[in-house]
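#onboarding

Welcome to the new folks! Below is a worked example of what a typical request in this channel looks like: someone posts a single protein sequence, and someone else replies with the predicted structure as tokens. Don't worry about understanding the tokens yet, we'll cover that in week two.

Example request:
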Amino acid sequence: QVQLVESGGGLVQAGDSLRLSCAASGATFTWYGMGWFRQAPGKEREFVAVINWDGSRIYYADSVKGRFTISRDTAKNAVYLQMNNLKPEDTAVYYCVSDKADVGSWPFSSCGTSSNCGIDYWGKGSLVTVSS
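Example response:
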């Protein structure tokens, strides 16, 4: 059974930093893309970042570019999201995701309130709240 488990969310103030972690189990994710989506209250799920299997290809949403950094440890089946200079509009549930599709074909936009966005595997999410 495939599992993605997020950790590291919490309540911070604007300008602070947080690091999200995701541990994957139940499958060999070595060749899979891994990434993050988020969903703010009352809004659609939206793409945040993705990294391919060897870290050579990374994509970010424009809204987080320059502030967030995605990385992975393939040996540990783990992916991380370092979030700096957080803003109140970053408040959302952050989901760790993974899929075997080429990362260039991932949906780099919003994809509905309950859709899986065409991505195979989702964690349960970790809440990040940024106060102003």
